[in-house]
Write a structure and sequence with these properties.
heterodimer, A: mainly beta, six-stranded mixed sheet, four-stranded antiparallel sheet, about 0% helix, B: about 110 residues, mainly beta, seven-stranded mixed sheet, 11 strands
């Protein structure tokens, strides 16, 4: 079965600094990969997704992620964070050749320093 | 389109009571999911249904039952609620293949 790990529970960056959130997955073949964001008290919003093709994926709000098969990773990046980016971020993995089950990581809470 | 709707939005139960959380989608999606969200635990999959008439266990199915009533509706039942089931419950749906999961607004459940 697929699994996903987000090694960092909390990350703090200064406004305007660059950001990288880590995500590692476990799956025997090429998985479906997702990043979601959740603001306090809100639902989940899809930032971006990878199914196949170009390994660098562009998403909304200036985010991007890169699929690296050799490292089993799908890290989320943003060149310059804004205070409004403070939220919790979830990586998720799906198993396209098995079933429709989609598993989420435990999340990384992003704090922004003014 | 309303997307994915969930009822109720809030619920307080006493230990041992039963209740059913309702979820419906109007996007003609095949797959539907129930997750629970707890602090520090992310979203954990309770049950999912890859198509009408089928259901499968996820990561944390104990204490729950589900029914895929038709293509639109996927309900989650707590037969005898326990304080450990205090959580926020999210329903989601997805079309076939590479489609994206769409989430409902969530149900905040407290079991006293």
């Amino acid at each position: 079965a697929q699994s996903v790990t987000q090694p960092d529970i909390h990350i703090t960056v200064s406004e305007g600094a660059s950001l990288e959130l880590r995500c590692n997955y476990s799956y025997g073949a090429t998985p479906y990969l997702f990043w979601y964001v959740q603001s306090p008290g809100q639902g989940l919003q899809l930032l971006l997704k990878y199914f196949s093709g170009d390994t660098l994926v562009q998403g909304i709000k200036g985010f991007e992620a890169e699929f690296k098969r050799s490292q089993s990773s799908f890290n989320l990046r943003k060149p310059s964070v804004h205070w409004s980016d403070a939220a919790e971020y979830f990586c998720a993995v799906g198993a396209p050749d098995r079933d429709d089950k989609i598993i989420f990581g435990k999340g990384t809470r992003l704090h922004i320093l003014p | 389109n309303a997307g994915v709707t969930q009822t109720p939005k809030f619920q307080v139960l006493k230990t041992g009571q039963s209740m059913t959380l309702q979820c419906a989608q109007d996007m003609n999606h095949n797959s539907m999911y129930w997750y629970r969200q707890d602090p520090g635990m992310g979203l954990r999959l309770i049950y999912y249904s890859a198509s009408e008439g089928t259901t499968d266990k996820g990561e944390v199915p104990n204490g729950y039952n589900v029914s895929r009533l038709n293509k639109r509706e996927f309900s989650l039942r707590l037969e005898s609620a326990a304080p450990s089931q205090t959580s926020v419950y999210f329903c989601a749906s997805k079309g076939q293949g590479t489609d994206t999961q769409y989430f409902g607004p969530g149900t905040r459940l407290t079991v006293l």
